[in-house]
Amino acid sequence: MTNCGISRWDDPAAINKALKNLTDQPIWEVSDDYYTNTILKYYDEKCKASRAVYEESKDYIPGGVQHNLAFNKPFPMCMAKADGAYLYDKDGNRYIDFLQAGGPTILGSNYPPIREKVIELLNECGPVTGLLHESELMIAREIHRHMPNVEMFRMLGSGTEAVMASLRIARIATGKKHIIKIGGAYHGWSDQMVYGLKIPGSRGLLESHGIPKQAYRLTDEVRPNDLGMLERMLKRNKLTGGTAAVIVEPVGPESGTRPVAHDYNKGVRALCDQYGALLIFDEVVTGFRVALGGAQGYFGIVPDLTIFGKIVAGGYPSAGGVGGKREYAELMAAGLATGKHRAYVGGTLAANPLSCLAGYTAIREIERTNACEAAGRAGDRLCDGLKGLIDRYGLPFVAYNQGSIVHLECTGAMSFDFSSMNIAKSAIGLLKNKAMMYERKDSMERMGAAYMANGIVTLAGSRLYTSLADTPEIIDEALGRFEEVFRHVKKTDKGLLK
Ligand SMILES: Cc1ncc(COP(=O)(O)O)c(C=O)c1O
Q: Which is the closest atom of ligand 1 to the Cα of 310?
């Protein structure tokens, strides 16, 4: 396969064993002395402009930032410039950017060929007219070229919206009711999908405050990597309205934080066929990242519907879309005249020329530059380097990657699983688990602060996206900075169940 960013697939059992070893131990983190006298000192002395913006933002913006990923300890950095592999904060400090805005900028930040096309378009017709623009056709045709089973594509405003649309299509197409998701997966923040967020088995417990139970009554959760449990759920649902769709993140829940076996998706496809459910691939992260043909190209699986986001708008706003087989995708344009029910979707700025042209240009550039492969090579180099450092310093940390998606688990905050816990019977156990997980999350953020103070931006201190801009020299520079942090890590007595 050309332009594929995944050169190897680690055994999930080995990764899970290493993660279990990590969570069986107390937390290892940067020492109090280093944190107070070096890290916090950096923020105090070198980040005064960021702090000033944040202090005022707290009065006007809930939490002081507009994005969950921007909330970094001890306070969020205010970025002023983005260029290739680097970000620069308002005080002029330079960082190697492994957050990549949460994934969209696989070509590097503020990539000139996209910017130039966008400026041309803005000069010509502005960002939006509300009517058809040729760029809408260009991106739909381009996606079909790389993912042939995406016969039709509808651009939307975000991955969250695209997931909502796909569930509606699946219910109309199958006439069935239930949706099965994989525990811990992220499919955006719609009422139905916050169920089972982050922690498998957490069902409606952790993040679903403010959502009526009825909204997720027909959402079911199964344990990652467990085809037996999926089949039992499909069987059980037959008695209560059937399963309209199984939705997966193809490299595993939470962007592969919970890795799956290489043939897992094949098993899911077979079960969907057996039980008459649609298979939805959520490729918001993986589309045009793990390969130009997405995870579906890499695994050789044909999903019924595919969800897009992030790279689909080339790092520009309004990044979302749903596509798939004609008979399903067409339902978004059904209605009385067609004799079929319509899956109603829309949005004032859906399919604006700006996002479509930026996305189209990005996909063309990814193809021209072989960006998935280059970013994947950078991810392998980063991951191998991190593993080397972890060994050298005798740390229990776990590093693994799916090409340009690199995971660095220092506290295991994301590795818990409530699936086998009888939550109804063990409220106290749940509370204790929550307290312990928050302690680990807190520590993960402290590690994130240490990376940031050493010039590395991560996604919440535990995930790193690499891009075309990450040359071997930049990766090696980053590894030197990670080493500086790891040198100061000590075992604590925190993070175990009390
Ligand atoms: C796998 C996956 N699906 C859906 C979404 C939601 O996309 P958006 O943030 O554009 O709503 C995300 C966002 O990170 C994601 O990672």
A: 10
How many angstroms does the Cα of residue 159 sit away from the middle of ligand 1? 5
Say yes or no: 415 and 333 in one domain: no
Burial code (b: 16+ CB inside 10 Å, e: under 16) for 18-46 equals bbeebbeeebbbbeeebbeebbeebbeee
Residue 430, pLDDT above cutoff 80: no
Task: Answer for the pair 305, 329: CB distance below 8 angstroms, yes or no.
Answer: yes
DSSP 323: E
Look at ligand 1, atom 8, and give the residue with the nearest C-alpha.
159
Q: Closest Cα to residue 472, out of 375, 352, 369, 329? A: 375
**What is the tally of structural domains in the chain?**
2
Residue-by-residue DSSP string for 365-376? HHHHHTHHHHHH
Residue 477 is predicted with a pLDDT of: 98
CATH of the domain at 423: 3.90.1150.10
Residues in contact with ligand 1 by the CB-under-6-Å rule are: 102, 158-160, 163, 186-188, 249, 255, 282, 284-285, 309, 319-320
Pair 346, 426 in one domain: no
Distance from residue 135's CA to the centre of ligand 1 (Å)? 23
For ligand 1, atom 13, name the residue with the nearest CA: 188
Do both 138 and 264 map to the same domain? yes
Is this prediction's pTM over 0.90?
yes
- Å from CA of 188 to ligand 1 middle: 5
Question: Could you tell me if 331 and 196 lie in one domain?
Answer: yes
State which ligand 1 atom lies nearest to the alpha carbon of 158.
10
Gap from CA of 66 to ligand 1 centroid (Å): 16
Domain co-membership, 152 together with 249: yes
The two beta strands, 152-156 and 405-409, are unpaired
Q: Model confidence over 95-113: pLDDT tens digits?
A: 999 999 999 999 999 999 9
Tell me, yes or no, whether 53 and 162 share the same domain.
Answer: no
As a whole number of angstroms, the distance between CA 31 and CA 35 comes to 6
Q: Which amino acid is at 355?
A: S
Out of 66, 69, 155, 160, mutate this one to test ligand 1's pocket (max ligand atoms within 8 Å of CB): namely: 160
Per-residue confidence band for 428, with pLDDT thresholds at 50, 70 and 90 = confident
Q: Is there a contact between 290 and 403 (Cβ–Cβ < 8 Å)?
A: yes
Are the CB atoms for 295 and 5 separated by under 8 Å? Answer: no
Q: Is the peptide bond before 253 cis (omega within 30 degrees of 0)?
A: no
Can you say whether residue 100 is alpha, beta or left, with left for phi > 0 and alpha for psi between -120 and 50 degrees? left
Total residues belonging to the chain: 498
